[in-house]
What does this fold into?
Amino acid sequence: MPNFVKYILLLTSALLIQKTFIWVIAISSYNITPDLVLIVLVYISLKEGKMWGITAGFISGFIIDLMSGTFLGLLALSYTIACFIVGNFKNAEERNLRSMNFILITGLAAMITNSLYFEIFFQSAASTMSVIEVMYKYIVTSSLYTMLISLFYLFKPRKKPLQNAY
Amino acid sequence: MKTFWLFLRSIKEYLLLTLFIILSLILMFSNDNTQIRFLRAVAVTTLGTFQSGISAIPKVFDLESENKYLRETNIKLANEIAKLKEAKLENLRLSKLLAFKSGAEIPLISAKIINKTLIQARNTVTINAGRNDGVEIDMPIITDDGLVGRIVSVSDNYALGQIILNKDMRISVKNQRTRVDGILIYDGAGNLTVGNVLKNADVNPGDIFITSEYSNLYPPGIPVGTVSETGNLDNLFKRIKLIPQVNFNLIEEVFVYKFIPSKERADLEKLYNKKR
It folds into this structure.
């Protein structure tokens, strides 16, 4: 059974930081913002699989959409699809959670989320920006920055597995 | 039957994915109904309560630039006061002559910004005034410098406002000097522009654009931005870039203008558009 309390706490913290303190690490002049909620969602999807991943993704996206006041459902859709794809990388030994693979998978998830979100977002608003321009101005830059921030996860202190306990 | 259930269990992840995608699409196409407004109000209240606590922490990094800005504003205001005193005396003299009855005072609700986003294509501010203070959806948000935006979501004690640096905003504006009309547009990449202005129109750098009476959402005459650059967009239209009148990086206090758009006018325009 998934550790719901832990995941709810992690997602709530990430969401509050994302909506309140993100200006501290965002590169405002270039519209580059890391997605902390997505990093937690990748962790949940790799740990619990697709079912819980997409559920957490949809709910988190929906809450952020509500708070941001515009285009309800778009981030929920982006997170849901990204978490479904990430959930495919879950394995019994949780290797992907303990290696550089985590960073690469976070990068992939960020690319999927940002591509869906920004392309639909800009196309719906009849923007003058081309698909390629949106790609390098928003999608690639924000995804790389999210990937960079997810590096901190690798430095997280871990419990050592018990070997030769007796 | 058992085989059917086993089959369903084997594809449960795909079923859930389909369900969430359908739900997301439904949400995307029902952005403004009553239930969604209620949910938005709940979300704004929750986040607003948290952010109002956080906003008590001073932003040390901003203090230096804020002090500089305040000193500059102070000097400008001192000059303005001197000019206004002169104008007031002149006005008193002329009013007496014309038996002019002064208009009612503008009803304003003051509020503090407890959160703002300036790094996205759809930027917003959260303020600590809500329905209990008389704030309603669609009311304009202003400062003494000019237009900030408009209220899009409101709860009892907080409200969420779209600022002019938001891709969803389209505002009818006019050049204060030459009365040339245009539409204010934010392109989502940091550029505030005025569109639909003909190539031969008289617009120069330094001109101020104000809200126009063509807009039903904003009262006319509120300064919006100063022209920083002009050029030709194509064979027909001008490309005009604006610098907002309001410094969104330093803004902390705002006023909500108790201006409710005319429903009669909106209904009439809607009816005409529908007929077409």
